[in-house]
Design a protein that fits this description.
This is Putative nickel insertion protein. GO terms for molecular function: lyase activity; nickel cation binding. InterPro entries: Ni_insertion. It contains eleven helices and 19 strands. It is α+β, with helices and mostly antiparallel strands. The strands form seven sheets. A four-stranded mixed beta sheet has the order 4-1-12-11. Strands 14-15-13-16 form a four-stranded antiparallel beta sheet, with helices on one face. It starts with a strand and ends with a helix.
Length: 396
């Protein structure tokens, strides 16, 4: 399992968020293409912030004032994949809801309707899509102190909209951390949108650390957003899990689909919904979740809030068999297009009994080269099986 840890010890802004993701290894070409569809070609450079090398983004966009509808239309006109556009829309919806809660209505975005914010949000969502972590842990957000000049005059830090976004997103904050506005509404909305809501991390291997640079270069405190990509090793042999279940008969299918996705983002090992016939012949669904014992209470609360159910059954400490596994990279060529793909192998008593190419990588390659995803998947797995059979023949 890969976990993205975001440490906004000196706040967050859209360009800082994107810069840090690029430093982690997000697909730079894909990000630039998406940003170019709404602004001029951005400049990406390595700068120093209080001695820390970090990535700075320049969108070269001017100011603009737009309504939510105009911003959404601009986002939808981009070249981003549909799933990226949907996440970008959700980010701006968070900002719009916060503005409306503060001002009573939202005629237009007060601070974030310009093309630079749109490009930063789209670029960040695209970068996150190419990294695709299993979970995102957001550490407490430093907001800064003092006053900041905005469209309607001087406001206290954190700005009212920023505070509303952080509160709605359930993010922990540090009311301070430096002078001035450290966390912007765009930065707060990106943190809230991608946070998985977890407040602790298991032991993990730290794979890479990166820093996204802000505008100011404070000589005393690095004006950067730090991100760390962690890998939690699979537990060999087996482990213990809890099983959560509840029956629902008045929840729309769209809500169930949203719940399953949110459960997986929040740390569930698996989540499913099975149609069933309930008392008095009513159609319903059995929602079943497999999770670590320490996550059972938190995920049960999530199920209750999203479905309105009054009870979630917990079957504790069920032993789960786990096959040994390994991940290898397979290189293939399809219609003259070459690529490398991670493949997960299942091992019993030293022999591979199943293997599967990682879907997100296959899907990204197929979309990029306009190829059928089934063709790419089959080619990767055929090559993986070929290499595995050669390995087994060699051992014999």
């Amino acid at each position: 399992m890969r976990i993205l840890a975001i440490d906004p010890f000196h706040g967050a802004a859209g360009d800082m968020f994107l810069g840090a993701l690029l430093g982690l290894g997000a697909d730079r070409d894909a990000v630039i293409r998406v940003m170019e569809s709404v602004v001029a070609t951005p400049t990406i450079e390595v700068v120093s912030r209080a001695g820390i090398q970090s990535i700075k983004i320049h969108t070269h966009a001017g100011p603009a004032s737009r309504t939510l509808e105009e911003v959404i239309a601009r986002v939808r006109s981009s070249s981003a994949p549909d799933v990226v556009i949907a996440r970008a829309e959700a980010v701006f919806q968070r900002i719009a809801s916060a503005e409306q809660s503060i001002h009573g209505r939202m005629e237009h975005f007060h601070e974030v309707g310009a093309d630079d914010a749109i490009a930063d949000v789209l670029g960040s969502c695209m970068a996150m899509y190419t990294i695709s972590p299993d979970l995102v842990r957001v550490f407490p957000v430093a907001t800064g102190t003092g006053m900041v000049r905005m469209e309607h005059g001087m406001y206290p830090v954190p700005a009212p909209a920023t505070a509303a976004i952080l509160a709605a997103g359930g993010l922990q904050v540090i009311l301070g951390g430096g002078n001035g506005e450290l966390c912007t509404p765009t930065g707060a909305a990106l943190l809230a949108e991608f946070s998985s809501g977890i407040h602790s991390l298991p032991p993990a291997r730290l794979d890479v650390t990166s820093y996204g640079a802000g505008d100011r270069d404070d000589p005393h405190t690095p004006n950067v957003l730090r991100m760390m990509l962690l890998t939690v090793p699979e537990e060999p042999g087996g482990d213990e899990v809890d099983i959560l279940e509840t029956n629902v008969d008045d929840v729309p299918g769209e809500v169930i689909g949203y719940l399953l996705e949110k459960l997986m983002e929040s740390g569930a090992r698996d989540a499913s919904a099975t149609p069933l016939t309930m008392k008095k012949g009513r159609p319903g669904h059995l929602i079943r979740v497999i999770c670590r014992p320490g996550d059972a209470e938190r995920l049960s609360i999530l199920i209750a809030r999203e479905t309105g159910t009054l009870g979630v059954r917990c079957i504790p400490a069920v032993h789960r068999f786990i096959a040994d596994r390994r991940i290898e990279e397979i290189e293939i060529t399809v219609d003259n297009f070459s690529g490398k793909f991670p493949v997960k192998y299942g091992i019993i008593e030293g022999s591979c009994y199943t293997l599967k190419a990682e879907y997100e990588h296959v899907c990204r390659f197929a979309r990029q080269h306009n190829l059928p995803v089934t063709q790419v998947m089959r080619t990767v797995e055929d090559e993986a099986w070929k290499k595995e059979h050669q390995r087994q023949d060699f051992r014999q």
